[in-house]
Write a structure and sequence with these properties.
This protein is of the alpha+beta class and 619 residues long. The protein is built from twelve helices and 31 strands. It starts with a strand and ends with a strand.
């Protein structure tokens, strides 16, 4: 049976993000301004009212500031009793008079504090919550929660079973679209709920020993194509995200001042596309909305008047209510969802998403796959090329915050990221990160990155299989069609790739097929030091290796495994073929700091080449 689960999370931020500057009207900053506090609480009440009149229960994530407001506390208790809302605790909304006086800082992102301060803040906030309600919360959250923070919370407050733990692809793209001022980088995590490992929040746990003890959910459900290509803050199932992205038809005011006539087809299509993910995940799909009062400021936001902010929220919630009435949606609190997830998912169960463009109406299509060993993305606009690869198998310990090597950067490193490291196309020299296939015939070369195709998903036993429509490769004297398939076997930490020639204008002709992966490592657009990477070829009786020195060296060997050992991310990546093929590696150079692993083999009509890409942890 298909089940579409919805989490709606409201937080009574008494000092919502950005709002003080708006309501202050140019006055000197005062986060205790009574007008700000009153308006914030009123908006929270409005959001709750909209959810409840549509029959949707919420999770109320109390902020630290709201715990000092008796009205907010009493309102949460009332809604818990009357509507079944969960009273939870957010680690957002820390700034308030009491917090500033104690910690002497304007920092507000819990993962950025020192470990000592994180633990002190958690204790302050959780104990204040207990003082107000007489129990500890079952759910918590922030934009991001690092592994050390989650482990500390779970050890000290074992009641916690669920947390908002990351914001999907909130990395350099978001930083740049916030005027280079949003120092919160956490690309590389799952887009749907997962059980985070004790070593790294982004990397799902592979077994009970790695299990952090909570179920993690993302901060908003994002568009898995538009968000990867652009700023995710414009593309989420939060009505005000859609307004910020200007992806709607505006309405108008009538003579009585009533606002109407607006339309948001993109918002509804985005919700429906999340519903459709049940087709790839054994009938299970998920959606969440995480909202603070700042989004419905009475002064307006994102060039939209308050009336539109309000109406969009009412219309979005009404759409969820419609789906619920039609028995196509189940609303749950965070704690209820954590129980459901634990009872319905195994550790190695992957998340799959065959995602199409619903914003521009193109035929662009991505396939996303995530399990405890990897996260990757295939781009059918580039012949099924792999444009993102994160080696979760390493379970890389990545401490975050003041006093660590990563004060702001919580991203899980990539081996391939086509947007940050050029992908197939580069300016005029060098190569970008991508995994694809080249075909050669009589001195000509064509990369399947240049061929658009369409993907089809099926499940064969435990395997998730993507089969692509054949692409046509045209040489001067030969035309062939190549069919590609990708097999993802949960728990294997590998991807099986098969390329088959299904048509040829000359059945006797043979072409060279080159399955390759060009990669590096990093979390941003800027190159890391590649020194120390070990490139190797290993056959039955011989092994050849070089340590990366930017010297543009190449080596090839018959019937071998090509591999790269990348100490900085504790990962070994290998490529090998099912039958005899020529394996090779290529070392990059300073202007093009990549490495390439590949396999070459000649094939003809009706023949195929099967290769594997495998990830392993390397200490």
């Amino acid at each position: 049976m298909e089940r579409f689960i919805l989490n709606v999370i409201h937080r009574p931020e008494m000092v919502p993000e950005y709002a003080e500057k708006v309501t202050g009207h140019g006055k000197e900053e005062d986060i205790s301004r009574k007008g700000l506090l009153r308006e914030s609480l009123d908006i929270f009440k409005t959001q709750q009212e909209i959810a409840h009149k549509n029959g949707i229960k919420t999770t109320i994530q109390m902020t630290y500031a709201s715990l000092f407001n008796q009205e907010a506390v009493e309102l949460a208790l009332e809604h818990h009793r009357q509507y079944g809302d969960e009273i939870a605790l957010s680690l957002l909304g820390l700034p308030c008079k009491e917090f500033r006086e104690k910690y002497k800082t304007k920092d507000f992102c819990i993962w950025m504090f020192s470990r000592e301060d994180k633990e002190s803040i958690v204790a302050d906030v959780f104990e204040k919550f207990h003082q107000c309600f007489g129990f500890y919360p079952q759910s918590t959250g922030s934009y991001y929660m690092d592994a050390d923070l989650i482990n500390f919370i779970k050890a000290r407050y074992p009641e916690v079973t669920c947390a908002v733990a990351t914001c999907w692809e909130e990395g350099p793209k978001a930083y740049h679209t916030c005027n280079n001022s949003w120092y919160t980088l956490f690309d590389g995590g799952p887009w749907n709920p997962w059980i985070p490992s004790r070593q790294n929040t982004h990397a799902p746990a592979a077994n009970r020993e790695e299990d952090s003890g909570i179920v993690a959910i993302p901060h908003l459900s994002r568009d898995l194509l538009a968000c990867f290509d652009g700023n995710g803050s414009n593309f989420g199932t939060h009505p005000q995200n859609v307004l910020r992205g200007m992806i709607y038809k505006p309405g108008s005011f009538d003579e009585d001042g009533n606002y109407s006539g607006q339309e948001y087809p993109y918002l509804y299509n985005l919700i429906d596309q999340y519903r459709s993910l049940g087709s790839y995940n054994d009938g299970y799909s998920y959606n969440m909305m995480f909202v603070g009062p700042g989004w419905m400021n009475k002064m307006g936001r994102w060039e939209a008047p308050y009336e539109l902010l309000l109406q969009s929220y009412e219309d979005g919630m009404a759409y969820y209510a419609k789906l619920k009435r039609e028995h196509k949606l189940e609303d749950m609190t965070m704690a209820e969802f954590a129980d459901f997830y634990r009872n319905s998912h195994t550790y190695e169960q992957p998340e799959c998403a065959l995602w199409r463009d619903i914003l521009y109406g193109s035929n662009k299509q991505y396939f996303w796959y995530a399990d405890p060993y990897m996260r990757c993305c295939l781009d059918m606009n580039q012949g099924g090329a792999m444009i993102d690869l994160r080696p979760y198998v390493a379970k890389l310990y990545w401490p975050v915050g003041i006093g660590t090597p990563h004060v702001q950067n919580a991203s899980y490193p990539f081996l391939i990221q086509a947007n940050y490291r050029a992908g197939y196309f580069t300016h005029y020299a060098g190569e970008g990160t991508i995994k694809s296939c080249k075909l050669r015939f009589e001195g000509e070369e064509v990369d399947t990155c240049l061929c658009r195709t369409w993907a089809h998903f099926e499940k064969r036993g435990a395997d998730r299989v993507i089969t692509l429509d054949p692409v046509e490769i045209v040489f001067a004297q030969l035309t062939v069609k190549v069919e590609s398939s990708f097999v993802f076997t949960p728990g294997s930490s590998s991807i099986k790739v098969t390329r088959r020639i299904v048509e040829s204008s000359n059945p006797l002709a043979r072409v060279e097929l080159d399955e390759y992966m060009t990669a590096c490592y990093g979390t941003t657009e800027y190159s890391e030091d590649m020194t120390g990477i070990l490139l190797s070829l290993e056959g039955a009786v011989e092994r050849r290796s070089i340590s990366y020195e930017y010297r543009c060296r190449e080596e090839a060997m018959e019937a071998a495994v090509a591999s790269a050992l990348i100490p900085a991310v504790e990962t070994k990546v290998s490529m090998y073929a099912e039958s005899t093929a020529t394996a090779y590696y290529k070392e990059g150079y300073a202007f093009s700091p990549m490495f390439t692993l590949g396999l070459r083999k000649e094939i003809g009509m009706g023949e195929e080449v099967t290769t594997w890409l495998k990830l392993e942890k390397a200490n």
